[in-house]
Amino acid sequence: MPAIPPVDEPSAQVEEADAQEQTSDEGMGQEPVPMPEEGPVPAPEGRPLAESEQEPVLDSEEQAERQPVPDPEAQTGQEPPTESEPEPSADEQKPPVPDPFATESREPAPEPGEALPGQDSLREQFEGPRWDEVKDLLPADDSGRQLTPRDCEFLGIEPDQVQNWSDRTAPLGMSPEQFNEFSSSLSDALRSDGLDPAEVDVRLQGSSARFFSGEHKSLPTRDEMVGNPEAQARYDEWMGDQQPPLRRPFDSMNKLGLESEPSDYDVQLSSDAMLQKAEAVQQETFPDHSLTHPKYNFVRKEIAKRAFPNLTAWRKEWSGSLGRDVAPAVFAGGGPPDTSGTGPSSHFRDDDWHIRL
Asked: Of 38, 37, 30, nearest to 22 (Cα)?
């Protein structure tokens, strides 16, 4: 059987004949045969593509160039979003650095006691909303000089302490919680010494209760501080353009640097039962001593310590806790005698601060 010759690729003449046949068909009114899109020519079945017929392999950049760019207006019917401005960097957000060589007009600093710009007087800077609520509660000494918020700022007294003092919920230098414990522990100490707290009249005296010391203690003047420039400087800082008080406010001597210890708590205990117990100790232990102090009429300290050991322990504990001396003094049931005609007196007064046990 004769060998079948291999099938050759279509010749150029055959392709040209096909093209003429297609043209003649269009001219006769027949539907044109759609031309294939650009791309590789499919190979006849059973035959691989020649190298010239294969689609060239594109790298990534060429593929990206051939991808059609979508039109956002055509897809959504809306204008493309406007590109937002970039946020400023941290350096751009910093405030400008002032020029150290630039000249600027500055108001001169006010002198001590002089009004600050926009204020009527120096004391107004201390009279905030809280002081406006309590400044009228501040007392005056016997010269009529009323304390001011500026005084309290120098003395370290806060507006809430003034309110507590006025309400009798705590003396100066204590919180209401401290004062409650102070009073209840005193009651316990008296019971431990064999006394009925209900039979003891307890009152708080001194500047912690009255804001000022007694009339026998005047506040030193600036001239009296000659030789103590630090005290004079503190005095100037405190007073400014104010008239000084006549008496010593709470803690004033310590704040001026004239005394090393702050103001104390004078606790006045008046009880006939306590006096009788102290007298028994005096006769047994101190027969050569008088029972009471010749000037102030309280039971002598050495006798009171021996007669009331738990009261003495209470005093030491609270002196350490508060950082101020607690000084109990024992009197007869009627309290100290009235010695106001000859000098200072701590006799009972209607406005005394009672400590309820």
From this structure: 30
pLDDT confidence tier of residue 282, bands split at 50, 70 and 90? very high
Average pLDDT, the chain: 80
Residues in CB range of 237: below 8 A, 6 or more apart: 112, 154
Q: Is the pLDDT of residue 64 over 80?
A: no
Q: How far apart are CA 123 and CA 173, in angstroms?
A: 23
How many angstroms separate the CA atoms of 240 and 112, rounded? 6
Q: Are 243 and 208 in contact (CB under 8 A)?
A: no
Cα distances (Å, whole numbers) of residue 278 to 110, 272, 329 = 61, 10, 12
Q: What is the DSSP letter of 83?
A: P
H or E element, residue 308: none
- The overall longest dimension of the chain from CA atoms, in Å, is 165
User: 353 has which bridge partners?
Assistant: 204
pLDDT digits (tens, 9 = 90+) for 189-228: 999 999 999 999 999 999 999 999 998 899 999 999 999 9
Higher pLDDT: 55 or 160? It is: 160
Which residues have a Cβ under 8 Å from the Cβ of 338 and sit 6 or more positions away? 345, 347
Please answer whether residues 249 and 147 qualify as being in contact, where contact means their C-beta atoms are separated by less than 8 angstroms: yes
pLDDT exceeds cutoff 60 at 60: no
**Structural element, H or E, at residue 27:** helix 12-27
From the CA atom positions of the chain, what is the Rg in Å? Answer: 51
Backbone angles phi, psi at 33, to 5 degrees: -80, 125
Structure token pair of residue 108: 């001169």
How far apart are the C-alpha atoms of 329 and 98, rounded to whole Å? 66
Region at 252 (left for phi over 0; alpha for psi -120 to 50; beta for the rest): alpha
Residue 107 has a pLDDT of 52
Sign of the dihedral defined by the CA atoms of residues 247, 252, 257, 261, in that order: positive
Block residue for tokens 């020029």: 99
Quick one: which H or E segment has residue 134? helix 129-134
